[in-house]
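User: I'm writing a tutorial on reading structure tokens. Could you give me a worked example: one chain, its sequence, then its tokens, then a sentence or two explaining what the tokens reveal?
Assistant: Sure. Here is the example chain.
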Amino acid sequence: MTAAGEASAPLTLVLVRHGATAWNEGGRWQGWTDNPLGPAGQQQARTLRGELAGQGFDAAYSSDLVRARQTADLALPGQSIILDARLRELHLGDYEGLTLTQMVAHDAFASWQRDPWAHPVPGGESLGDVAARMQSWLAEVPAGRVIAFSHSIAIRTLMRALLGLALVPQPGYPIPYAERVGHARPVTLRRVGGVWSRPGR
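And here are its predicted structure tokens:
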């Protein structure tokens, strides 16, 4: 099949954010910091296992960060998982480990907020950078039914790129997406005839 044919072949893509970590529970932004799941996150992944039971996947992928890998292993025991660094969270650079209050107080925060899609976090990435690597990964994903364990901002950035979602500034939140993605919660997208949609929306 040609590259164009592969891009238009039917694909059901299930995107899953990792379970919660101690930093999530403490309100600290973690980006590429490699934190493991906390007890609550492990239970979230086990709960997801029951929801996914009986669902077959032609391929399963995960960010190489440990919180995503652990979620994948707990939710899909026995499934072969392909690790890919392109599924990582937004690299938060100087903001890694900060609370939102600390982030807002950073000297470069206001300039980043003016256009986070085009302007990178100091020492990190822009949302556009995340979109580019996520779409690079997606271009290699086979048709069929696929699951990928990733991260909140990364998942919503891919959704924005595929579905054409608007960037909407959120009061009190630095990422301009109205959509929220819960811990260990699946989001299903479908590609039919080269057109992406979110069933039920």
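What the tokens reveal: The chain has a mean pLDDT of 94. The radius of gyration is 17 Å.
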